[in-house]
């Protein structure tokens, strides 16, 4: 069963266009694709008040329960469905809900820091890094966090300058050395996008 499942890693900085590429693959292959977001594996902090949770550094590798994600991928490769935790950005904490991920032919793992862990990389068949200019990424993040995650403009900019930018430079950017493919400009790069789609199509036909 394991050789039948392709694990596709899509990494890149915040607002780089990872979701656009993921969406394109889902549109192209529908039920053959399932997605696991590294963000859902943020560690739970139920014992901490909201004000304290809001101050945590969510862009450091230690903020994730990556071991749990690695175990989930191993189970999927064996053909077993897994229960994935659900994270709520508005409360800065993991919820008590889970979503079931099925062992589809293609499993996409998406997140800013998925290539930082060598053990996690070893579970992937193809590693794609989406490389987008920092000014484009911060503008996208501001729009997303204010519109979709209930954040104030001030809090988004403050978080970007204190943790997002330094952590990107320390961990995210260097991790692209582990990528098999680097896509400049993310979802706007139609040539690269079509190459990825064709690679997945070849796997599904195999």
Concise structural overview:
The protein is of the alpha/beta class and 206 residues long. The chain has helices at residues 18-29, 50-54, 66-77, 118-121, 134-148, 153-175, 190-205; strands at 6-12, 33-37, 82-88, 93-101, 106-110, 126-131, 181-184. The chain has a five-stranded parallel beta sheet with strand order 2-5-1-6-7, with helices on one face. It has a two-stranded antiparallel ribbon with strand order 3-4.
Q: Can you describe what's shown?
A:
This protein is α/β, with parallel strands linked by helices. It has a single domain (2-205), classed as Rossmann fold. It has 7 helices and 7 strands. The chain has a 5-stranded parallel beta sheet with strand order 2-5-1-6-7, with helices on one face. The longest helix is centred in the C-terminal third of the chain and has 23 residues, at 153-175. It is globular. It starts with 5 loop residues before the first strand and ends with a helix. 34% of the residues are buried.
Keywords:
206 residues, globular, alpha/beta, two-stranded antiparallel ribbon, 42% helix, Rossmann fold, five-stranded parallel β-sheet, 7 helices
